[in-house]
Write a structure and sequence with these properties.
single chain, about 450 residues, alpha/beta, Rossmann fold, 6-stranded parallel beta sheet, about 45% helix, binds nicotinamide-adenine-dinucleotide
């Protein structure tokens, strides 16, 4: 099939590359000329395991091309995916009714450009995460801007991939949700996804839009729930790892998303939970459950920082080693990463920060230059710990789990670890005479 993907970020680039790998002719469009230039040279502008190799292969076989022009990009398209960003609206005045909602300007701009260029029937698919009703907004924008009377359908096909395992998630999805105005309209997408052999659910457009938000909000709820239980474990002397293990064995609950820690971050959960709360309010509904989920998550960073302040009395003059910057392992994405909040607070308190992350250090320099200017980037986990008063585990990269802790201890000024991801065993750390603070595991 001739497929066009507009927006070559984490979702669009992976989607386009995977569809090319499945044998389709794919054109990826992006407004960012630097990105297009990088991609044309076969390099990936983002870190995603396996992506660059697949990218190079499909460029070489001429199934994958890149352009800045939506008009040129959709010239022969049968299916056009919109995969641009849908960031949160953050107003200075928190009581502004638009605050927390979704900024649809990128989606609107793309819909307008498609309308201006459309000259043959096609299937337009919203892959971006968008509030319920956005399908209608896209349809109206294309209709309003087109010169002729070309027929087209607007579908919703929310994306569930996870950064860090995006290629595998795209190739082996749990389910493919297609929100379509009719079974007939869903056919091109069903054909496109057929080689994956995955379970396909066809719904109406609005239901598909809500499925995405409801799924993310549910997973965020699981995380905040286990974090709330972790606090009880901490106060009562129980162990959250054992509690979560016992809960997770229940098939109705499942073991995933039950890791207590410093909370969720990233480009999806924080903005999608806020956006869903906002959507509830737009329909004059309230959702106290989701508000609590967000509040619990926000308090996680404060909790670990409070602990540090209690332990040291003051932050001024300390050298703190931060292990991990990315919002989760196997990605360089720093959007809503806990590291940014923690480092900002520690710098304000007067601490000196040393840090190491296997892939996200360039992203910190690019996206947070003010923070990057004030911190020291190190060569590896042992280097970062050198002369540190405390080590803080922020991202649970596999290589941090495997560290030689005796070697680490020798290089530190004081053997103190604040583990925001519970990656070490308290017993082992006690034996090694570390002062070890983790989440929800007794003292
Ligand atoms: N990142 C994830 O893990 C993930 C997972 C599922 C769903 N989503 C959703 O998918 C969407 C995209 O997310 P992302 O993380 O890939 O975003 P991103 O910011 O990484 O990428 C968006 C891309 O769109 C491009 N763009 C913006 N306006 C454009 C225009 N007018 N024409 C062409 N290109 C344009 C940007 O230059 C950028 O490259 C969002 O709605 C997000 O919520 C993301």
């Amino acid at each position: 099939m001739n497929v066009t993907v507009i927006g070559t970020g984490y979702v669009g680039l992976v989607t386009g590359t995977v569809f090319a790998d499945l044998g389709n002719d794919v054109i990826c469009v992006d407004i960012d000329p630097k990105k297009i230039e990088t991609l044309r040279s076969g390099e990936s502008p983002i870190y995603e395991p396996g992506l660059e190799e697949m990218l190079k292969r499909n460029i070489k076989q001429k199934r994958l091309t890149f352009t800045e022009s939506i008009e040129g990009g959709i010239k022969d398209a049968e299916v056009v995916f919109i995969a641009v960003g849908t960031p949160p609206i953050e107003t200075e005045d928190a009581s502004d009714p638009s605050n927390g909602g979704t900024d649809l300007s990128q989606v609107r701009a793309v819909a307008k450009s498609i309308g201006l260029a459309i000259d043959h029937p096609m299937t337009i698919v919203n892959k971006s995460t968008v509030p319920v009703g956005t399908g209608d907004i896209v349809k109206e924008a294309v209709e309003k801007n087109q010169a002729g009377n070309v027929s087209f359908n607007v579908l919703s096909n929310p994306e569930f991939l996870r950064e860090g395992s995006a290629i595998a998630d795209c190739l082996k999805p749990d389910r493919i949700v297609i929100g379509a105005p009719s079974e007939d309209a869903a056919r091109p997408l069903k054909e496109l996804y057929a080689p994956l052999g995955a379970q396909v659910l066809v719904t109406d457009v609005k239901s598909a839009e809500i499925i995405k938000y409801a799924s993310n909000a549910f997973l965020a709820t699981k995380i905040s729930f286990i974090n709330a239980i972790a606090d009880l474990c901490e106060s009562s002397g129980a162990d959250i790892a054992q509690v979560a293990g016992g809960m997770g064995l229940d098939e109705r609950i499942g073991a995933s998303f039950l890791n207590a820690g410093i909370g969720y971050g990233g480009s999806c959960f924080p903005k999608d939970t806020q956006s869903l709360i906002h959507t509830f309010s737009q329909f004059s509904e309230d959702n106290p459950l989701l508000k609590a989920v967000v509040a619990i998550n926000s308090s996680r960073v404060d909790r670990i920082l409070d602990r540090m302040e209690k332990r040291f009395g003051k932050l001024d003059g300390l050298t703190i080693a931060i292990l991990g910057l990315a919002f989760k392992p196997d990605t360089d994405d720093l959007r809503e990463a806990r590291s940014v909040d923690i480092i900002t607070h520690l710098l304000k308190g007067g601490s000196k920060i040393r840090t190491y992350d296997p892939v996200a250090m360039p992203a910190m320099k690019e996206h947070y230059p003010d923070i990057a200017d004030q911190i020291e980037f190190c060569d590896d986990a042992y280097d970062v710990a050198h002369d540190a008063d405390a080590l803080v585990i922020v991202t649970e990269w596999r290589q941090f789990i495997q560290l030689n802790l005796e070697k680490l201890k020798k290089t530190m000024k004081q053997p103190i670890i604040f583990d925001g991801r519970n990656i070490y065993s308290p017993d082992e750390l006690k034996e090694l005479e570390f002062e070890y603070f983790s989440v929800g595991r007794g003292s």
